[in-house]
Amino acid sequence: MFDVSLFLRHNFARVWALASEKLTSLEIGYVSSVMVTELLSPSVGPHQPLNHIRASILPGILKLNLSVDYITDAMVGTISKSLVSLTHLDLRDTPLIEPRITFDLTNSGLQQINQYGKLKHLSLIRSQEYIVTYFRRVNDLGILLMADKCANMESICLGGFCQVTDTGFKTILHSCSSLYRLRVSHGIHLTDLVFHDMSATALCMTHVSLRWCNLLTNHAIKSLVSNTHLKVLDLRDCKSLGDEALRAISTLPELKSLLLDGSDISDSGLSYLKGSSRLELQELDVSNLPYLSDNGILCLAKSRVPISVLRMRQCPLIGDTSIMALASMQVDEDRGHGSSLRLLDIYNCGGMTQLAFRWLKKPYFPRLRWLGVTANVNRDIIDALARNRPFLNVASHGEELGIDQWDNSESLHMHDYDDVDELEQWLLEGEFEDDDEEMIDAEINPEM
Description:
Blueprint: H1 9-16, E1 25-31, H2 33-40, E2 63-68, H3 73-82, E3 88-93, H4 107-111, E4 121-126, H5 140-147, E5 155-159, H6 166-175, E6 181-185, E7 207-211, H7 218-224, E8 232-234, H8 243-249, E9 257-259, H9 267-274, E10 283-285, H10 294-303, E11 309-311, H11 320-327, E12 343-345, H12 355-358, E13 370-372, H13 379-388, E14 393-395, H14 422-431, H15 435-444
Parallel strand pairs: 1-2, 2-3, 3-4, 4-5, 5-6, 6-7, 7-8, 8-9, 9-10, 10-11, 11-12, 12-13, 13-14
Helix pairs in contact: 1-2, 2-3, 5-6, 7-8, 8-9, 9-10, 10-11, 13-15
């Protein structure tokens, strides 16, 4: 690891000439697109005649992950030509100003991708961190040209392609017969028609993310679940999706991660999960749902779905009753109450009071390792809870908890906390017995 900004631009390529030819994976947190282009462009070597072109730097690279100022045609073309063995290409840009045509991605740039036909994973994301901006110079034609060379692609992530319509996205689904991961964000023209005839595709997708695609309705999800092997489904901020979408989703037997943040799901929708005896759901995000109440969480607790990650932040109707229900939840007869939850995010839930914290201490939620709460709750109670549960990470300022399940979807749970060593057992059983009383004192005497 090193800081790219420490290198003068004209020295950057010279440094990489010293890199091992065995290097197969390279990730740079930030670098300008011009420096990337100069790094990989074949050029005349020192003290050599003009007709002697230098061999490509980094000839063995298989995976390239770059965060740049602008994704440009020149950079994409140079990467595609120079890295002959590339199988994974992940590019993200974060423009400070709207890109000019010479510093942007166009249909021509997309056409140059995967010239050697070895690419398996492609990710092109335009971030909205500083300004609202998109790939305005790419339309359906660019996607069609790219799809011709991407028939063997297994994973495609596209973010910020505002000019691409159903025609372009549908081409991807029908051209890439090996596609098992699809991620589209800010697909402002993506509608239900993309998934209308899913039976004509290979139906092999296991990971699908459709975030900020506000034109999608329940009909799209009913067609999408024809991919019965779906394991990860991310529908965050799809505001037109309602309870009928969840009814269709509940039929998926292998689903492990379901993200519904910002949709239109209510208590009735969660009740469909209760009726699904085959569901293997491990992660559920029902944050920012204005119509979700304690009744929905009560229904979820009764379902005995083995959820280990539950996010329900910013839900105004969620209160103490939900915590009591989850604390009493039993996944099976051999485990204790609330035993399956490892992460619980209840930040800024409208009905939460100090009573909920009594149910967050021992012996409830014995496997809980991450907890998100609201900072304006009595600080003494939070501190006492942290002492009562020394292995619990408590976040109280709205931080995101845990890991990105999309990026780590091959292993939804990186660590297994089932086995508690002797030291932890001793601490949990004997060292912090007085903290239960501290929590009660903090509730009674908030001024102390």
